[in-house]
Amino acid sequence: MPEKPLICRFSVKLGGEFHTVTASIHLDVPTFVRFEMNAPSGNSPSMVVAMWSDGQWNVFEGDRSADPRHLLAITLAFGTMTFGPPGSDWLLVRDLLINLTQSAVVHYR
User: pTM (2 decimals)?
Assistant: First the structure.
């Protein structure tokens, strides 16, 4: 298992604009994931920062329309990975991120 965080960067088009999504996956115990979406201002959130740990998402920046589960699912389905781990590390990360789209709890700070 990797000791350093695994970083994935994606480009995804939402609302006619390209957004950059970064996920930093820390596979230590306890596992946690930092999710960031930077976007041009417009109809969609301009910045979302969230952290997943202990089975729940905590959104630190972004409004209630900025559900990290939904944004992550769209990114994985329609985005293009521009930076990320190779081979089997990517398969592990992808499976983890897919599972996080189904997390039941989201808290907004």
Answer: 0.87
